[in-house]
Amino acid sequence: MHSEEIFARWGALRGAIRMEWDDIPDEDLERIENDRERLIDCLRHRYGYTRMQAVAEIERFVRDQGLNR
Fold it and tell me: What pTM, to 2 d.p., does this model score?
């Protein structure tokens, strides 16, 4: 499974996403809702990641959540 699983299960994973990236305010999470590109952009802005780093962080999160099975 790919990072798209996050967005298919956004409601259930929002709390885990909030815990993982605690610098993302709730209003940003509401704007991101189900949009992979918005999450990538948010991680780039809040954490100074490159696009590649943001994508890698999302993929790591997916693995850590057991969504890649």
Answer: 0.78
Q: How does pLDDT run across 31-61, given as a tens digit for each residue?
A: 887 788 999 999 999 999 999 999 999 989 8
The CA angle 12-18-24, to the nearest 5 degrees, is: 135
pLDDT for 10 equals 72
Residue 34: domain span: 4-64
Tokens (6 digits) for 69: 């099975």
Question: The CATH number of the domain where 46 resides is what?
Answer: 1.10.1470.10
Mention every residue, 6+ apart, whose C-beta is less than 8 A from residue 18.
Answer: 24, 26, 29
- Cα separation, 28 vs 60, in Å, equals 21
Distance CA 66, CA 64 (A): 5
Whole-angstrom distance, CA of residue 69 vs CA of residue 52: 22
